[in-house]
Amino acid sequence: MRAHRTPIAGVLRIELDLTPNPDGWFKENFHREKLAELGMNVVQHNVAYFEEPGIVRGIHAEPWDKYLSPTSGRVFAAIVELRPGAAFGQVATFELGTADALYVPRGVGNSFCTLAPHTTYNFLVNEHWSPERVAVDLFDPELAIAWPDLPLRYTERDAANPSLAELRALLTA
């Protein structure tokens, strides 16, 4: 496991060792001590499976840290700084395969788009799920996220998220 800083404070891109074997591959996706060094004490492991490319989720900032990694397929991840401060609204994007992971601290918005059929997406969190979250419009022109050139499918809930300007006003009110 090798962690690399990204343009957004606290967000780490992580290279995982993927070891080929005669049947496919093996990776150590979770190692408690290694994640604890990043400041994460995992309490829940969630898995989401997506049959088709172009499925989009987010942009959500939850009250927990996340460790994200696909175990099959590929995803395009868009990460947005939603914590108050000068970097508010900063965007970083990543393409993640099975040998990649991201560590996303609480308060930072995260979203993804499946790039391949049969994508399985794992995320570990350090707090149990709650409905509390901050969200922003996936297609806000101020964010200017260059989403993959695919037919995109997303939920009505995500489509109704506020713009970055509206969120900024809500957070500073």
Mean pLDDT across all amino acids: 91
Number of helices: 3
Within the largest sheet, what's the order of strands? 1-2-10-7-12-5
Supply Rg: 16 Å
Number of beta-strand segments: 13
Q: Tell me what the CATH architecture is.
A: Sandwich
Query: What name goes with the CATH superfamily?
Result: Jelly Rolls
Order of secondary-structure elements: EEEEHEEEEEEEEEHH
How much of the residues is beta strand, in percent? 35-45%
Helix content: 10-25%
Q: Into how many domains do the coordinates divide? A: 1
Describe the secondary structure blueprint for this structure.
Layout: E1 2-5, E2 12-15, E3 18-21, E4 24-27, H1 32-37, E5 44-50, E6 56-61, E7 66-72, E8 75-81, E9 91-96, E10 100-104, E11 108-114, E12 119-125, E13 134-135, H2 156-159, H3 164-172
Antiparallel strand pairs: 1-2, 2-10, 3-4, 5-12, 6-11, 6-13, 7-10, 7-12, 8-9, 8-11
